[in-house]
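Tutorial sheet, problem 5. The two components below are modelled jointly, 1000 residues in total.
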Amino acid sequence: MDESALKKIMDDIEVPPVDENAQKRAVNLAVAEFKAHQNEKSQKSAQGTSFLSRLIGRSTPDRGSKDMKMNKKGLIFGGVAATALALLLVNGNFSENNIAERLPTGGGGVNNFSSIAENRTYSIASLPDFSGFFGKDENKQAAVAPAELTTPPGTAEASPAYVQAVEEANEEDMERAIISSNSTIPVPIEAPSDRLQLAQESRADAEQPKAPTSDQYPAARAKTDEGMAVAELKKSQAEGSSAPAQNSATDTNAKGFYFPSLKNKTAKETTPRAEMADKDMSAPAATTPGYAGQSNVIYPEPYPYPQPVPVPVPPPDYYPRPYYQEQGRDRFPEYKPNSFKVAQEEPVSTFSSDVDTASYSFMRRELNNGRLPPAQSVRIEEMVNYFHYNYPVPESREEPFQPTVTIVDSPWTQGRKLMQIGIKGYEITGEKPHSNLVFLLDVSGSMDSPDKLPLLKNSMKLLLDSLQPDDTVSIVVYAGAAGTVLAPTKVSERSTIYNALDNLQAGGSTAGGAGIELAYNLAEQNFNKEAVNRVILATDGDFNVGITNRDQLKDYVAKKRETGIFLSVLGFGQGNYNDDLMQALAQNGNGVAAYIDTLSEARKVLLDEASSTLFPIAKDVKFQIEFNTAKIAEYRLIGYETRHLNREDFNNDKVDAGDMGAGHTVTAIYEFVPVGSASARTVDDLRYAQKDAAKPAIEETASDSPFANEYAFLKIRYKLPNENTSHLITRPVTAADQRALQKIECGPADSCPASASDDTRFAVAVAAFGQILRGEVNMADYTLDNVIALAQDGKGADEFGYRTEFINLVRLAKAFEHRQ
Amino acid sequence: MPDAENTELIKRAQTGDAAAFEALANQYYRVMFKMAFKWCGDRTAAEDITQEACIKLARGMDSFRHDSAFTSWLYRLVINTAKDWFKSQNRHPATDMEQAANIKAEESAPDDKILMQQVWAQIQTLPEGEKEALLLVVGEGLSHKEAAQILEVKESTVSWRIHEARKKLESLFGKEKKYG
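Model answer (C-alpha cells):
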C-alpha cells in the first residue's frame, strides 16, 4: 500500500456537505462564547495595573480550560441563551427598521431569517449590499446606509432573474416556517453591530483605487482602526512574551487544549505559510487579496468565504435542500418471519400482546417519500393493530376484555385457513384518572429538522388538550446535558407550558440516559398514587451520552416500572431512528411506542386515542393457543416475531409482556392448514413418528369426544394495572367461528354462510400487505391488487379515513413495486 | 485556502472584534468539519466536535501567535477536541464505515470502492497517534515536519507512525491486491 494509493483513498472519501444549521449553531455558540470571553478579559484588565492585581490575574493561567469544563455541562443552556439573544436581536431589527424601505432594494430586504446565512454561504458575492442591513445599530452608519441602498453598487450585477430566485428561496423558507409552525426557521443570525464597520473598511481598502465615489466611509478611520489593532496586538504579544510561564502552562494543559506557543520559533522560520503570516503581520496595511481578488464582482465580498460561488443565476437545484436528512442509519430489531409449525410437534403457540403502531407510521412515511420500507421495519402486528376494530367490549373493569375469534378461508392459499383473534380493552367511562406526566424531550442536534422538534412541540401541545386542568405536566430536555425546563405545572397554566415548549431549541449531543434519570426523578417527586404516572419520551432514538448501553437502559426502565412509573415512547424523524431501542424501552416501561411522522398521526395517538395511550387497564397480557392436532396439521402466527414467548412463560407471572390501555384493540392472525388438506401442507408427515404421535390425539378427539368441534383453545392471561397476579380468560375456538371472508349479499330466504365482519376483511388485507412488503414466501400469487380489493371490501364507515389512507398507501407501494 | 488573506481577520478577532471572529468561524467551519469527519467518520459526531472546536476557538484566539499557519493550528485544535470528545463519550470512532464513507461511486470501479471502504474502516481503527499522523500527512498533504509541529512530536515520530500505519494497512490489503 503506497502513499499515493492511500492518498487517493483519503481524498475520495466523501465528506458530507456542511449542514448549514449545524454551522449556524456552532458559530452562534462560538460568537457568544467569544463575547463572553472578551468581557472577562476587559474585566480582568479593569482590575488595574498594580503589581498585586497583575499577580492575581496571572494566578489562574489555565482559566480558559476550566471554563471549558464547565461549559460542557452548560453547553445546551448556553445555546439556548445564545439563540434567544440572537432572536431578540433579529426581532429588534424588525421593529427598528423600516422594512418597507428595505424590501424593494432586493439586496437588503430579503436577507432575513435563515436565508441570511444561506445567502452568505454561497451567493454573497453577487448580492448587492449588506451593509445597510447589518449596520442599523450604529446611528452614524444608518444615516449612510439608505443613501447607498438606493443605488447599491452591485445592483447592476445582480440580474433580475437572480434576485427573483433569491426571493423565491426566501418565500420557500417562510412557507416552511409556517408549515412547521415556528422554531426551525427563525434560525436567528445575529446582526453584529460592528459588522458594517468591517465591511466598510474592507471595501475601503479594496475599492479606493477603483471607485472612489462610493467610498463614503472615511478610509482614514479604517487606517486608524488598523493602527489601533496593531497596537493592541503588539501589546498582547508583549504581555504574552513577558509571561512565558503562562505559555508553557497553556501548552501542556492536560485538557488537551493545546496552543502553539512562542517556543516553537525554530519551526516557524522554516514553514512557508508561517512566513507569509509573519510578513502580513509586519505589514498590516497591505492589501488583502481575498477582498479585491474577484474582478468580476464590483462590490467585493465582505469576507472571503470558502469556495464562494459567483454565479449570477444559480441553477434551480442550487437552493438549499429542505433540510439535512440522514440516510440509512435507522435501526430495527432483527427477526425472521414465523414459518409454519407442525401442530403435532409443537401444538402450543405463545406470544405477548402488542399495541404499538410505530411500524405502520414508519412504513407510511417511507412510502410517502417514494420508496418501499425496509423489510426489517415491517412488523405486521403493529400494522394490523394500527387500526381500530369494533370487537365487543367487556362490561366490567375486572375482566377488561373478551376475545373474539373468526375463522375464514385464507385468501392467498387454497386449502388454508386464517384464524383472527381480537380483543378490545375496557373503555373508561365517566371520570378519567388524573395524570402526572413528565415529557422527556430530546433536543439534541439530530432533532433539528422540521419533522422532528417542531412536530414534537406541536404534538405535545395536542397532548395537553386531552388532559384535565389539574393534571400535572413537567418537561425535561436532554441534549449534551439534561435539564428541567418546566417544573411540575398544572395543565390549566397552559401558557406557561406553551412558553416552555416554544423556547426549546435543538443542538448538541444526546445524553438520553441522564435525561431519563432526571425525568424519573421528577415523576417520583410528584408521584400520585391515584393517578397515572408516566414519562413520555420523545426522541429520534439516538442515545450517545450517559447510559448508552441498551440493556442497562432497559433494566433501568423496568426497575422504575415496578415503582409505578410507566414509560411511553414517541419516535420522530428518520434516517437515524433507533426503532430497536425505542421498542425495547416501551416494552420494558409498560408503555406504547408510537412513531409520529405527521401532525395528524400525533392527533391520532395523543388526542383520539389519548385514553389508550395514557390509561393502562391491563398489563402483561399474554396469549396462548393450543391447537387441536386432530383438526389442524400446521400453523403459523403472522407477525409478532419480536413478541414471541416460551410456552412456560405464559403461566409465569414474573415474565413481562405487553400492556393495554383503555379501548386498545389487539388483533392476531394465524394461518393454518386443516388436517386433510394435504395439498396445502408445507411439509410431509414423518414416516416413523407419525403413527405413535397421532394416536392419542385421534382417540381423544374422536367424533363423540367433547373436543370434536374445536380447532383450538385460546387462553389469555393479564394482570390488572396495580396487581401482581394474573387472571385467566379462556375460550375454545370451534367450527361455529367459521365465516366466509367475502361479503355475501344474502336474501332473507337464502341459506348462505354468514360472512365475516368488515374488520376481519380489513385486518386480513393489512396482514397481507405487510407480508408482501416483507417478501414472504407464503404469499404465493397474492398481489397488491388483491389487497386493495379486500381492503376496499372491509373499509366500513371509516370515520377518520385511516383505512382509506391505507388503501392509498397500497396503491403507492404498487407504483414502486413496478419501479424496482 | 491561503492563510495570508485571513491574517487581517485573525488579528481583528484577536483584538476582540466579534464580527471578525464570526466571519472567521464561518469561513473555517468547513475545514474544521472536514477534519473532524475524517477523524470520526460520523456526521453527527463531526458536527458536535466542530461545535466544540468553534467554542474552544472563541476562547483560544489569543493563543494563536502567527508562528504557524492558521489552518495547521486549527488542525491541532480539532484533533485535540476530537480526542477529548471521544474520551468524554467513552466510545470509539465509527468502525462501520459503510454509510459514513460514501466513496464517489462513479469514479471508482465497484471492487475499488469496496476496498477503499475497507481501508478507510481500518484507518479508523488505527491507534490515535498513527491515525492523526496519517490524516495530516496523507489526508491533508502536509509534510512530516508540519505534521510534527501540529502534533507536537518529533518529526521522526511522525515518520515512524506513518510507517507503522502503512505497514499495518499493507499487511491487511497490500498483499492481496495491488492498488494504485
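Marking note: Residues 63-96 of chain A form the longest helix (34 residues). Full credit if you identified this.
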